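SAMPLE LOG
Freezer: B-3
Tube label: C17
Construct: single chain, 291 aa
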Amino acid sequence: MVNLTYNKNRPLPSAEELPSSDETPVDNQLQNDLPNLLLNLLALIWSGRDDWYFGVDMAVYYNPDESAFVPDGFLAVGVNHDTGERGRLSYILWGEKYILPILFLEVISEKYNSEYEEKFLNYQSLGILYYVIYNPFSGRRGRFKKRQRLEVYKLISGKYQLLESENNRVWLPEIGLALGYEKGEHIAWYREWLYWYDQSGNRYLTAEERAMNAEAIAAQERLAKQEAEAIAAQERLAKQEAEAIAAQERLAKQEAEAIAAQESLAKQEAEQKAIRLAERLRLLGINPDEM
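STRUCTURE (predicted):
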């Protein structure tokens, strides 16, 4: 059982004096990869904040005389994220102003490790607000195949109560995020992963997904630029063709005007010749009007 009572006035051990873990290795890859994905996502989501810490496979000490708990992952809010170059060796409650982690995460082990029983009761007694259990064997095999894939418990009046999920997500108001799962690709591995979501249910993207989206957007912008340049080139060509047509029309008009001027001049010359001829005929006594 969890014992929270001890003499706080005596010298309390530092992180250097305590083991940083329980020396028990994880028994499957997901127990490292899932919490690390959540950590990496938080580093993006809360990049401007320095009041949180997400530990992976790290000891959490609540009593200097008791063994630490070592959840697969945990989140503490209201503590310094940056604790110096060395960082944390473990999470020691008396070294964190007695701020309890707000969330513990356990991934069901290949060899069952009492996630639904002893750990459940211990974390409840410790006062961890949210206890999250991810069961990759749900619906497939093992003694807990009938349990939900993701179970999120909240401490209400000292007891854990299972929260309802919506679209495989559970909203955690004290954290301002939802926790859920869906299939995706991470570290070149396509499977079901745990992710953080906003209140509208939009999943926060990983750094790799953001980079891919940025590259896709850049490619679209390059394509749009090329299309705009092609349209501009077509417009310039169309303008040149229109100007050529206009020039041809002006030339044709000038040629028509020249022809008309020539015809007018020829007509005037013909009329002058007719007048001179008529005058000569009259001098010869011939009336040209009677001819």
